Amino acid sequence: MVVETSYYVPEGPGSDGFEYFRPTSATISPWSSDIQHGGPPTGLLMRALEHAAPETSMHFTRVTTEILGAVGLEMNRVRAQVIRPGRRISMVAADLEVVQPDGSYRPVARAVAWRLRAHDTSTIAVRPQSPLRPTPEDIDVKVGVTADSSLGVDWGTEGFIGSTESAVTVGRLGATPAVWLRPAVELVAGEKISDLQSIMTVVDVANGLGTRLRPDEWTWMNTDTTVHFSTVPSGQWLGIDAELAAGSDGFGATFADLYDADGFIGRSAQTVLLDGR
């Protein structure tokens, strides 16, 4: 088995304004060996958003990633732009496309983010949840999440899930534990991953962590991931305390409280398509 050291290998910028990337096997979804898990594309789009708006006078406060179709393993390309400039409020968007057999490119994911002016409001700062404890420094860290083969899906040793590190602690929202996660490989080969890129690469996993459904009986594919930040996150680890609300009409939603080592940093929400296997 090839041990990958990154999710993407850069192939350089094109004259069309896109950056080109070749996905590695570390991006592969546990549901199918032909497509990427939603995590690495979300991280790659976050990287594009940061590069399009690098000024430090504003902070990312909400990031929404829409999955428009299966993200294939052939050549990927990404382009970002500021679509609403401003000194106090701005919006940035990024698009991810995948090459098709005829050489054309198809849009498969899009991210849109709000950025707000940096301003000192420490005198009124409130975090609605106490810090998630213990942190990964105080509990066992392992590769992947779980490798229970009886469930019919490998959640622990292969593809994207096998490229992460995790540490389990007590959850607060539902019947599932909270989990600390971080990528164990680079997002783009040869680059240091930023804190936001690290967090956005693993936050998609909330959908799997918050469910009590068996993956050999059900699938719960998310079509989107929205993260609202209440403070600037710090560090590569993301603590996820998630719960899936499964409806009776074929869909549901996963909600999660998010933490860094210092405490609560925001919440995520994902729309979920429910299907029997």
From TrEMBL:
Domain spans labelled Acyl-CoA thioesterase-like N-terminal HotDog: 29-115
Domain named Acyl-CoA thioesterase-like C-terminal: residues: 175-273
InterPro entries, alphabetized: ACOT8-like_C, Acyl-CoA_hotdog, HotDog_dom_sf, TesB_ACOT8-like_N
Coiled coil ranges: none
Superkingdom of origin organism: Bacteria
SUPFAM superfamilies documented for this protein: Thioesterase/thiol ester dehydrase-isomerase
Name this polypeptide is given: Thioesterase family protein
Organism encoding this protein: Gordonia polyisoprenivorans (strain DSM 44266 / VH2)
Higher taxonomy: Bacteria, Bacillati, Actinomycetota, Actinomycetes, Mycobacteriales
